[in-house]
Amino acid sequence: MKKDTYRMASWWMLWEDLLFPESGIEEKIIKRTKKFKAAGIDTIVIFGCHFRWDYIYNWERFHNLLKFIVDTCHQEGIKVFDHHSANLTHRVDSLDEYRNINEKNRHHVPFFPSREFADTITFNGHKLNDFRMKSVQNGEPCYLNTYNAEIFCMNNSNFVSAYQVYLKKLLQTGIDGLMCDDIIYYPGWDGCACEHCRKKFKDQYGHDLPPTTDDSFWGNYESPAFKDWIEMRYHDPLDFLTAVKEVVGTDFPLMSCCSSSSSKGLNASGMSAEIMVKAMNNVMLEICGEIVSEKFDYSERIPDFMLHKAITDKHGYPNIGLGYAHNPDSAFVVWAFNKMLASSSWISTLTGRFGVAEEIRKTIPDEADIIHEAYNFEKQHEELFHGEATAKLAVLFSLDNLMYNGCKQTDYSQPWQDITKTLFKQNIQFDVVVDIPSPSEYPVLLLSNFDCISSKIERQLKSYMDNGGTIIASGLLGFRDERGVLKDQSFLADLGVELRNHQYKWNIPATELFKPNRRAFETNDSGYEIYFNGIKAEDNQWINVTGLHWLPKSCTADTTDKVKKLLPSADPEVSCPEGWVYRILRNNDNGKYFIHLLAADIKAIPYEKFRNTILNEPVIEKLNFMPGAGKLNIQSSALRATVHSPELNEPINLKCDNGNFSFELDNIKRYLIIELA
After folding, report:
1. Is residue 131 part of a domain?
2. Collapsing DSSP states into helix, strand and coil, what is residue 8?
């Protein structure tokens, strides 16, 4: 499949749109399509009729509406992706729950049946209510308080067949792609104990699912059976998406939801782009909340974004960053953040979660209003946005370590996330990889808390070092196999390294495991001692042997200092004032380099009158960019350097002084690209 790029934007539907085919709605769609076209948007993603099973008796009306949108957009050269939840469905018991949906979940048109009527609905020969996930605690249908919804089970073969039938109807609208949403375990560990899940666990793994009072299974990361349960729930979304692909076709653009692929808590939800990509051909990262908020900056998104980039680069698929914004500043940062990482951008508003009346909501800027500057600049200068990273440092991510290295966030996920954020902030050029690379491509490989290593990975790491590669590692390294079991012979045993007095407690009591909104459970830090050639290593002692520099205690600062000392010099070399981050890309077709610089010091200014009701967080009204002023210097063998920016009326050509190009950054506040030819 061709690796497409997109300038995406959400296309929101309202109650009034369901009046289609009223002529006024047709005129509204035509007018809006032209507005989106003028904003540089080349792909719209439908959002509004989201919990699709709630519309079962209005599918024909909705599909006719969708086909009109598709036909209208195609006339303007705009692609249309449908976006819907394949398995969530509203269920309410009281007027207060209706109000909750209206205030917090009007990110779609909340059209849904009563509980009484829902129990009568059938499709493809089965009742919809028979598709529901069942609680492992009490056997009742799982309920999601956040959405006032129940969820259908992806292992229910009758549900899978019914959804495939629905997809065949949907494809008749002529859509160009599908975002099949919510194919994860939203109930967390509480889902699912239906007969289909129990049967699959028994047939494929040989285990009966025990009651939740059984602490030898639930939350016990030393239990092989519980590890099998984790493995199955990661692969259940893949199995469902594989069934989707059977209908839509191998080359039809298909993606699903993924707001993270690197956090320990994903063991409960089964969400991983690295696994789901085996059925998808587009990968998106949902950047939940604001891209820059009062609490954090966009560097918090780096770990998952770089991981998703590694996954898509491996398969040659598009990588897409979905960011929510409600002002031109935030939309611009979403776009620039994506482009400096050589990815596609998807911009979306979430005004349905402001808890305001429709007449107020309609006065808030939409996607075309806030993204037109960025998208039209990209459209006019497409040649600036094609390239691959030139980094010589690779940071390895391990799904085995995510799943089986300990039971808490700090065992693997947090140290790995911390090192990637730090490298990014310090402008140390790196790529995330999910396989051991060639030392000719990446002469330095960084491992963080990489304790779970299969025999295959062990051989690959040793081959990497034997062929001239340098490994920098911190934290425990290779004392366990890929399932977290201590090895008799560790990865470093032949180098004289021993692990002694290792104490750990890798279990989460069931009383903690099933708590609502439970964060990754924390235990006391494991105690251990490292001996090198029979002598106890100090906490800050680097163990250096041929091809390996290892700090047994995890320390981000010491690790990045070691990286700086061991990384080979690069062409071009860049130095810039504080307050900027940059990424260097190279277009292998024409040999040009593109240095993307984005302001890092940004202050978020919230609206006084709007809040995100579901997150209970401020909505950002504008951003104050406070980048460092001063001189950007580039040492390069290039003959020409040109500055491009949406903030410039025209490009600026730089003079070369003995291989050095310099540029005063004082007059650019947000984003620029240096083209080296």
Report:
1. no
2. strand
Cα distances from 158 to residues 71, 152, 179, 239, in angstroms, run 33, 10, 22, 14
Kindly give the residue spans of alpha helices, DSSP state H, lying in 218-366.
224-248, 266-269, 273-276, 302-315, 328-340, 358-361
Give the CATH number for residue 505: 3.40.50.880
Burial of 359 (0-12, 13-18, 19+ CB in 10 A): exposed
The count of structural domains within the chain is 2
On whether both 557 and 410 belong to a single domain, the answer is yes
Q: State the pTM of this model.
A: 0.96
Same domain, 582 and 556: no
Q: What is the pLDDT of residue 517?
A: 63
Structural contact between residues 384 and 644, judged by C-beta atoms closer than 8 angstroms: yes
Q: From CA 306, how far away is CA 313, in angstroms rounded?
A: 10
- Per-residue confidence at 108, pLDDT binned at 50, 70, 90? confident
Amino acid present at 405: N
Q: What's the CA gap between 286 and 8, in Å, rounded?
A: 13
Q: Which residues of 632-643 are buried (b: 16+ CB within 10 A; e: fewer)?
A: bbbbbebeebbb
The structure tokens listed for 610 are 């709007």
Q: Which domain holds residue 657?
A: 573-676
Instruction: Scan for tokens 């080979």, then name that residue.
Output: 568
The per-residue pLDDT for range 446-459, each reduced to its tens digit, is 999 999 999 999 99
